[in-house]
Amino acid sequence: MLRAFDIPPFWLAIFIAVAWLADWFVPGLGFGWRWTQVLGQGLIIAGLLTMGLALWEFLRARTTFIPRRVPTAFLQAGIYRISRNPIYLGDALVLAGLALYWDIIPALILVPLFMRLITRRYILGEEAGLKMLFGAEHTDWAAKVRRWI
To answer: Would you say the pTM of this structure is higher than 0.85?
Structure first.
């Protein structure tokens, strides 16, 4: 039962809730500047766009985007020429964007913590699986494309 919750969107929701609660428990942790909302909106849009572009590549290749499932294709086109993990990158951008939009500047510390958790919990295993399935093709691609950006 708990394994059903062990998916990246669940962890993103937890980190978003912690960011929101930080302001609720200790209000006034931001600058109160309009630019944080504008930048936050931009990061949220960039994150959603990044995720959308990644999902498009999964659909085009007719392979799974669900973590820990065996892919039937190796994605290297489109957004995957820029980031090896654009969906997770999009998640991190949305988290950063929400912290800025809500003007909870200290909550930005959650972004690298989220990235570390996702890397350890999902990315390292996914990369090992891709290397086993696609061998040198994965190794060559990983040497050219950064894990996050």
So the answer is: yes
